[in-house]
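Quick one - inputs below.
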Amino acid sequence: MKKITSLLTGVAFAGIAFANAAYATTLEEVQSRGELRCGVDGGVAGFSAPNDAGKMVGIDASVCDAVAAAVFGDASKVTYIPLTAAERFTALTAGEIDMVSRNTTHTLTRDATLGVNFTYYNFIDGQGFMVAKDAGLSSVKDLDGASICVQTGTTTELNMADYFRNGGMDFTPVGYSTSVQTREGLEGGACDALTSDASQLAAIRSETADPNAWTMLPEIISKEPLGPVVRQGDDQWMDIVAWTLYALINAEELGITSANVDAMKADSPNPSVGRIVGSEGETGANLGLSQDWAYNAIKQVGNYGEIYERTVEPLGIPRAGSVNDLWTRGGILYAPPVR
Amino acid sequence: MTSTAASKKPMMTDSPPIITINKLNKWYGKFHVLKDIDLNVNKTEKIVICGPSGSGKSTLIRCINRLEVHQEGSIIVDGTELTDDVKQINEIRSDVGMVFQHFNLFPHLTVLENCTLAPIWVRKKSKIEADELGMELLNKVRIPDQAHKYPGQLSGGQQQRVAIARALCMQPRVMLFDEPTSALDPEMIKEVLETMIELADSGMTMLVVTHEMGFANKVADRVIFMDEGQIVEQNDPKNFFNNPKSERTKLFLSQILNH
Amino acid sequence: MKSTTIPLHRNPKLRSFVVQASLLLLVAYALFSVYQTTVSNLEERGIKTSTSFFDEVAPFKVGYSPFLEFKLGETTYIEVFFIGVLNTLLVAVLGILAATVLGFFIGIMRTSQNWLASKCALFYVETFRNMPLLLQIMFWNFAIFLAFLPPPKQSIEMGVFFLNSRGLHTPVPFIENHLLSTIWFGVIFASFVGTFVFAKWSKKRFESTGKSLPVFLISLSSIITVSYITFVILGSPLGIDIPVLGKFNFKGGGQLPLPLFSLWFALTIYTSAFIAENVRAGISSISKGQVEAARSIGLTRTQMVKMIILPQALRVVIPPTISQYLNLTKNSSLAIAVGFEEVVAVWANISLNQTGQALIIIAMTIVFYECCSLFTSFILNIYNKRVQITER
Amino acid sequence: MADSTLKLKKLPDREPPENTIGWIAWIRDNLFSSATNTLTTLIFVYLFYLYIPPFIEWAIINANISGTDRSVCDTNKSGACWTFIKIRLEQLLFGLYFASNPEQTWRPIVAFSVFGMLIIPLVIDKTPHKKWLLIALLTLYPLLFICVVYGGVFGIPVSDTGQWGGLLLTFALSFVGIIVALPLGILLALGRRSEMPIVKMMSVTYIEFWRGTPLITILFMASVMLPLFFPSGVDFDKVVRAMIGITLFQSAYTAEAVRGGLQAIDKGQNEAAMALGMGYWRRTILIVLPQALKISIPSIVNTFIALFKDTSLVSIIGLLDLLKMAQNSSRSLDWNGYDIEGYLFAGFVFWIFCYGMSSYSQKLERKLDTDRRAE
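Output:
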């Protein structure tokens, strides 16, 4: 009933200034509410999409789960709020949600002008092109003059414009507001190619009527570091989200998995491991969380590698040797030490 | 006061009747509105038709210019039988003028344009000619000064006189009046009736559905009483009013004259 | 007699003043505090609002801009706004033309004597006006056109017109020889002037003699003949740019891209159902007496429709139809569902997403539509005044 | 003329000639009365012949309804795939939350059935105590809806508005739109006819502002800008924000509908009330409004129809209304390629409601017309 009451008062006294938010920090607010409100896309396979049971799953959703586990010790205390690309930042800055984990690219403009902060990256992507196999195209260079389906309002649209402009090539954008529509456009013949982040292309291809009819061109034309976003001005909360993500990556690096985390906690000679699973140091207290914050996240959600394997791997995007692998294995995922 | 001798002379000329109606039957759906109507109208004859509402009198005169379609019998107007032939119908209509209870002037045209519309488009007169004719007839109905107004700006009586002028502009051989005064206030009835009397005096053939018995008495050569789709009684006005033959007519007259 | 002094709280003038003043204050206060909250929210949340992005180069490409050429890397945001506005107006004009023709056709069919025709028109009207427009736009675009139109290489050919999954491709004329084509345009202009004079003369003649000529037919055929003959004599100063199949799609000629085509198609069908209903209402608003009077003076059916029924029906039909034109213009904002680049799509969606300047962008969009609405009311007022003068 | 009395014999009513009544005459008059008419008939018959049998074959005769997955439809491509609708029906009607929690499905069912039980007697002419039914619909029913569908009381678990979807969401949005907009609209209509210039001006500005803007822009505003207007701490989810936008928008249209009713009221009514010594509010509430509202019901219903259709626009700001639900289902991997069926189903559901409402409003209009003529 709280919401209905607040609606009524809100409508009735729309103009009358309220006292400012009752809670000083996001953490306190989240804790007193008893759940984490996490903005997701809700429609991208592998990132966040409802499964058969109606639960949101994917690498983005898992970050929400991990933060909830870190804060409450219970990964299920999350409400996923599906957001369009246009709303994600306003919803966040208005306090409607506590964090955004919605395949959002980190850019200077967004960081500097929208009142939001980017933490770290849970998936490092790059923009590619998908075309029909029998079209006889082997490179993006062959696309001069082509019609290209794209989701509007995304960085994808901008990268494509830059790329073609640089190469002195021409193209006709065919813009749709959702990625599903871009797929329908491509399948229906509204365009010759579809451009999106490589991970999305894989997801889209898996949803086409005949996935074998489509192929990805070799070029990756942009950097798309995707990661969770928080409101500006609450450093503690930013730290919590960032370090939860770091903890998952460090856990993989140190070989801590959801299966062996209990054993590691009980008995691990490695102090780095100890600090993560909470048997050593004051890591939780420094963040304003309980001592076993990272333990809970790893135990309930798994380390980064496990999450990846569970969510993105099935799309047909292998990890080994890609940018999304750990720095120790040739990738660029590099988390600062928990100490 | 009795009417002028000229118009009261019985029509015993040899020329054929201008309208011949023979065994006319009409149904609205299954409702039998006109039953075996026989009626001949001679040139320059004035006929007043009266009767209670629903007796079929309006339907009868509307059949004459094919606003209603009859199912049995025949109507011959000026030697032409009314059939489904559109061309014939239009010819007959341009020879038969009609004045309606609710005037039915065209509200988007000025008074003069109302009058000249048909002469221009049906009679193919030039605009100048038609304008002259229109003004002449508006003069006749005594509203030439209203020629450039719109019907909505006129009183009911004036509108009805415009309607008469409009019908006359086609220089018809027969004029039909469908309760021309029943939608008017008493003082306006008078001005319309005066116009109609003048028209009668000019020798026009007229069929008038009306309850204005004064008018009937003064102008009519024949008064017809209809009830339940039949012609119950017809006679010259004197005999009709003074010596009605059927009970139904008596009852009707007593109701209409004593109210 | 004793003069009565009204107690202050019962003085109607004072009461009205107090009510209005307090209402005004309340609304002003409400607006002010919304403003203040917004400003402080923006500040608090670190969102910077300014119009400086107007002159920034738009970092994306608008695919369809027939009036203002879009140059990647040169076109600025504010130009994108105008491209959007022009595209909205384009689809509005195309839609209004088609919906009016179709709407009148269906509306007249609805009043037809033919039972089948009348019922089919009824079916049409009831089907299309009782389903959401958005659903219809998406249905035509995604479920019908995209699904059934062939790819460019197997386009449906209709002479020099080509229809495929990218849209409709049409030939367009282009100027080959400047001097000669100027002469040619001059000749056409002169022949228009000629027919105008001819029409005036024929009207005069009609008024004085009552003899009429088929002015429209004569004018049309003489304009066509004259322009064709001079075109040949001048040695074809204009070329026709016929679309040619290129590597990916047809090149050259004019293009009605599929999103525009679907949007236009759906808007036309949807709006025509409403216009048809207006037309039906207009025609049936004419009393039987008018028809009978027209018949009784011997007008033919065509004359009656042209001179009595239509002029009167139009007075009833036009005002709600003008409102439908406004609705159509507003409804064109649903283009966002199929990706046509009108003002809401390129401005309130793409530009907003890229710049984050929600306040300014939404406000400008609203102002544009309010202008359309004001313009419509203006036209309606003029029309109503004119009708009032000619008929009371 | 003496023989005229011979005609006094009353003729009996006869049946009209055979060929002028009955279906033959009807066909002749309505289908073949002239050459053009005959041609038109032939053209239409040919068109029917071309399109109707194949459609019926596709939609009914060859259609698939059995089975639980797409394999049935994939093997028989010549007919429509209604299996898809059957399997997804609960989602389409109640949204994901109630469809995926079978033990909760009773809640929207109760909400819809109670609504049906209230609305059906309301549209039937002879129902007694209509006024109370209407009041119940406008006051008690929303409470019931909140308790049952939203929950949070009597141990019914809360279903966030954000989890509503399908027809339920479409219904909730338009219902909120109409009942909140009604009082607002009445006030605005009174304001627009007020003699106080400032009140009038403000009402006119308000009404024309909302009527001049497309709903989609207002929804964008509600979804992107509204959060900026409220102080931090007052936050509504997207559905509630859409409701606010829709209500503001709808109140302007309702106001115009009510204004039409107010204009139709005879001035004498107001004057008579004044003569009885009634003040403004008493006159308005007791005399003018009851009559004006009665007259404006058809127009209000018409604005409601428009609103009901327009709620589909919330799919553009990412809400899962009936249309979006149908689209999502037909675009999902399970049923990819059967989107015509999805659109037809959603269109049909919208059509049923809109057509029903518009027939009702036309009926009311005719009734009001005859009532007024009778007066």
